[in-house]
Design goal:
The complex is a heterodimer. Chain A contains 10 helices and 2 strands, in the order H-H-H-H-H-E-E-H-H-H-H-H. By secondary structure, chain A is mostly helical. The longest helix of chain A is centred in the C-terminal third of the chain and has 33 residues. Chain A is flat. Chain B is built from 15 helices and 20 strands. The longest helix of chain B is centred in the middle third of the chain and has 15 residues. Classes of the chains: A mainly alpha, B alpha/beta. Chains A and B meet through helix 8 and helix 9 of A and helix 3, helix 4 and helix 11 of B.
Chain lengths: 263, 476
Amino acid sequence: MIATLYRPEGSLLHRFDSRVKLVNLLTLVVIFFLPLRLAHLAAYLAAAVALVVAVLGAGELWRPVRTILPILLLVLVLTPPFHREGTALIGGFPLLTDLGLQEALRLVIRFTGITLLFFAYLRTTDPERLVLSLRWFGLPFGAALVISIAFQYIPNFKILYDQVRDAHRLRQAAGPDGGRAGRPRRTGVFRRLGHSVPVLTSVLILSVRRIPVLAMVLESRGVGRANRRSTYHPLPSGRAFVCSAALGLGVEALLLATVLLFP
Amino acid sequence: MNPEEPSLRVRGLSFCYPDYPGLPAKELFRDLELELPRGSMTALLGAPDSGKTTLCRILTGLVPRFSGGALEGRVLLPGGELGERPPFELVEEVGLVFQNPADQLFAPRCDLEVAFALESLGRERAEIRSRVEESLRWMGLEAMRDRNPLTLSGGEKKKLLLACLQAIDPALWLLDETLEELDSPTRNRLLEYLEARDKTVLLLSAKWHEILGRYAHQVAVLEDGRVRSMTVGPESGAFGKELQRAGLTLPKRPRKGQPAGGKTLIEARELEFRYPGEGSFALRLERFAVRAGEVVALIGANGSGKTTLGRILCGLLVPQEGGVLVPEAGGLEAAAPQRLSSYTGYLFQDPDLQIFLPTVSDELAYGLKLQGHGAERIRQSIQDAVSRFHLPGPEVPPALMSYGARKRLQAAVCYLLERPVLVVDEGDSGLGGPEFAALLEELHGPERGLVFITHDMKLAERLADRSVELREGRPA
């Protein structure tokens, strides 16, 4: 998902140094967790929305929101009953109070904001650069390799899933009901879920089977050697890095000022 | 280092995998001896289950390190005895291209795949860059630098692995069925390169490729757990008989099929297909038809569109223009993808993408259960398929079977589904000529049309009723 999220383009955010971006991202995430007023949190969310729209286009906004929409709805429905203090909004019924609703909105704003920020980061940062940034911040090579393999494997998992789904489709397409002869026809979500289970199971089996092979491949490509590892694609240094860092510091200062001015 | 010293000496090598449920251990090698003179190319031929892949992995320190098993004997490299040296210490001495290229690729981009081992060796960035560029150019992959390796065709994946090896340029190259899935110009380029640089090469193959006659300094056969040198070289007239004796040649017209001329089973018309967002490749075909009883070979260079056509015929890809017709009550009619998937069987290049279940019998029974067959019919079908396709046994876990055996299992699964048309994508890769001929014979029938994709022109000539060549997505 992460590697497929990345789209190489030339926007300012794409060109922004991945290390500086990472620091700004973490600061913004921390801000979303601060006990700020709801209106201020909403303003940060509006800023995150504006960032995504400005850098990636309005059409991109829906992608991450669509993914988390069921969770947002659940949060909206389930949070108020657990916060019954405040004034009841529907008659004397305490399951929906003004404070309960505020708490639900606060959670929705936090979750949406953080999702949008990570989406913007991953959409504009080459995964390889992300791993290099983590290593730059002192993450050991072994841990960085695990993250790197995981990042690389997630999109590969998607490719593998598609290939296995094709294989299943060919094998299952045998009966009048797409290969499910004699079984009751299932429709909608249940049918899709029912079809996904054998495919996911097969992908899982193939993935587990691949672990020792991957270990073989990594060792035969030199993973485990005592010498210092070099890097093919360096992180920017010199003027490019200084400019990005200065801009990043400016962003940090601005964020700090907004938090202090609008608690 | 003594220039006369061989690049590899194997002395008294014996190996046995551990016991697994349903697959008792048997000795794979016994007192195996092998010597590769420096700068020589050795073609080691062997039947699919003779242990070629295991031998390669032993020579690179991967087996028994990752597989377990009992290993005896000595493997001597110029840098010293292999012994307990881990694979990462051998990167510059020995390089291996796996038989199944998908197993060996893990990076998200082709250039990163090539650069990875150089980074492990701690090479300077400028050197890595120039080697990556040179290696990708050598294999004609420079335009695919940013592509995810898993989206490449089987042949392109092998090219990428060769580029990875060339970037490191080890002293000893181990090529496990590497000529399979490579087109003729790439085979030439590879072998010319290795000869020009005096590389020591051990090329393992389940079949004899004519091109090896020009480059191989010695030819040997791996059988009964030992390496046996050929008594005559490829230049000798008796060489063919030697190959035949070792079971490595195609029997004359082994296919017992009916003369082609039956009704049209499938027909693709006015096809046009492009992959969304993936370069300028387009498949354009006016007409491609297969009749009952017919065997058609689909040939062409890597990336010429053979697999794409195969996937269109079975409904896995939908062309932007044109369509695929199959017989219906009123004659040939355009078929929806769903219909094509239940009509045309397809054997993927990589068998592991079609094999998932714990045992051979589970795998064979799966499709039959979905078709609603009864237990007795399923039991009989499994017995029949195990015997027809020479599978090691119904309770054997496919994951522990050789690559060739997994290909036979894949074919058996497809056979039991009884599709009117079958597409076999590079089915000969990992199988010897005779084994592939036998496999086709089992799949073939008077009411069935067979399409097999191959790079082996001899195989196409001997086994097919006709060949269709694709060149950059168009009929040649």
